[in-house]
Amino acid sequence: MARTVTARGIAITIPLHTVSEANTQRSKWREKNKRIADHRSTVTLVLQAEARSHMKLPIVVKITRIAPRMLDEGDNDRVSVKQVRDAIATLLCPVVKRNGTVDGNDRDPRITWRYGQEKGPYAVRIDLHPREDGPASDVELLEDALALRERLAGVGVAMDGAIEALREYTARGNV
Fold first, then answer.
1. DSSP 82-128
2. Has residue 138 got a pLDDT over 60?
3. For residue 13, what are the β-bridge partners?
């Protein structure tokens, strides 16, 4: 486990082997339930020990899955870190059910969820930082722009050519 203090908050990397539950139909229910319980308890224990002071609402939580192989973005990557999200939500917004168990409200509007993927040895990195609310807050737009810039950095020359072709196309009055 690694803890890093960032300019805006904290990042914690937990060695955790995540899999997409949507792609593991062949696993037995006991194995799946044990994996889910292990992931939730590991994340809960680590965050309680390492990041309790940084877990104040409103907050931005970015969960980055690190693995040797990338998953489909938008569905399988998010399904693979569902237990991590649930554990964080339980710490941030606990809800006591009728039967006495505690669950988390991951739909709370005070939490902004973000996701990412990186190649490397199996782990999950959780970035936590306060969310700046209000009409003057462009933090989320800036984060989106920076993330897009990072993704397109490798495309560089091809992107420049595409932009130039688009400019020529619109200059000819085609749009």
1. HHHHHHHHHHHSEEE-TTS-EEE-TT-TTEEEEEEEEESSSEEEEEE
2. no
3. 2, 125
